[in-house]
Specification:
Blueprint: E1 6-9, H1 11-15, H2 24-35, E2 39-43, H3 48-58, E3 62-66, E4 71-74, E5 77-81, H4 86-96, E6 102-106, E7 111-115, H5 117-127, E8 131-133, H6 139-146, E9 152-156, H7 160-174, E10 178-181, E11 187-192, H8 200-208, E12 215-219, H9 225-230, E13 233-236, H10 242-247, E14 250-251, H11 259-266
Parallel strand pairs: 1-2, 1-12, 2-3, 7-8, 12-13, 13-14
Antiparallel strand pairs: 3-4, 4-5, 6-7, 6-9, 9-11, 10-11
Helix pairs in contact: 2-11, 4-7
GO molecular function: magnesium ion binding; phosphatase activity
Pfam families: Hydrolase_3
Keywords: Hydrolase
Length: 270
């Protein structure tokens, strides 16, 4: 039987239930795994401060793989810092400005947002009150007002057809200088070139001194697929996208049914 040493988990739609809390069975399962010596790695499109709601609920030491793996931090040690280039940032942000409901620049601990009251309130409910409302199209201005350089741009709108058109155009305009992905039905992410959650697996495994074969990954959406493929054992949630499920070796219960806890028990991790 394979021994596992680290658990990598997405947050929204995976670790979190729909109400943005962690189920009691999942909390207890992860706490038990941590007490048994397993390392817990949170992998999310969120920035680090936005991920702390999860780490605080778990109450165990975690490693952060934030912004879809562009920023990886273990304690005070940065394992990866990969920011989007200012030129391609300005070009793509300028193209999208005014076309969508919400345009957000994610930094390490804060975000800048160009949106109306409704979308601003929604973003705060997800990530906490760490945002600044402003025109985000100039990365230097974002840095000046937040005190941090931006890593990515998050686009949100409930018009799925419009997002599909914008995503196609963004990929053409990016020309390989940025990654254009989706982490949910109503969003598009503009990430630094070469950014994928799959990169977090070997980087963190090397830091921990363990083989990749001893890693487990949980995810639910398209942006989790690479991580699920790269891990020693990739597990998709029942509520996950088809791409995530196809990339996984196993499908567990949904996020609202404590799917992580169920899988950890099934594979005798706890």
């Amino acid at each position: 039987m394979t021994m596992y040493s680290a658990i990598f988990t997405d947050i929204d739609g995976t670790l979190f239930k729909s109400d943005l809390t962690i189920g009691e069975r999942t909390k207890e399962a992860i706490r038990q795994a941590s007490a048994n010596g397993m390392k817990i790695v949170l992998c999310s499109g969120r920035y680090i401060t936005g991920m702390e709601r999860a780490s605080e609920q778990l109450g165990v030491p975690v490693i952060y793989a934030a912004i879809n793996g562009a920023l990886i931090k273990a304690g005070d040690k940065y394992l990866r810092e990969h920011r989007i280039g200012s030129g391609i940032y300005s070009q793509l942000a300028g193209f999208v400005k005014g076309k969508v409901s919400s345009l957000i620049a994610f930094c390490e601990n804060r975000y800048a947002i160009d949106a109306n009251d409704e979308w601003y309130t929604l973003q705060n409910s997800i990530c906490g009150d760490t945002g600044i409302r402003m025109d985000i199209s100039d990365p230097d201005e974002v840095e000046r007002k937040t005190g941090e350089k931006p890593y990515k741009i998050l686009i949100k709108d409930n018009d799925c057809d419009k997002l599909k058109r914008i995503m196609k155009e963004l990929k053409e305009r990016a020309g390989g200088k940025a990654e254009i992905i989706s982490s949910g039905w109503n969003n598009i992410e503009i990430l630094p070139e070469g950014t994928d959650k799959r990169e977090a697996i070997p980087i963190v495994a090397d830091y921990l001194g363990i083989p990749v074969s001893e890693t487990i990954a949980f995810g639910d959406w398209d942006n989790d697929a690479g991580m699920l493929e790269a891990a020693g054992l990739g597990i998709a949630m029942a509520n996950g996208s088809e791409k995530a499920k196809e990339a996984a070796a196993h499908i567990t219960l949904s996020n609202n049914e404590d799917g992580i806890a169920a899988a950890l028990k099934k594979f005798s991790i706890i």
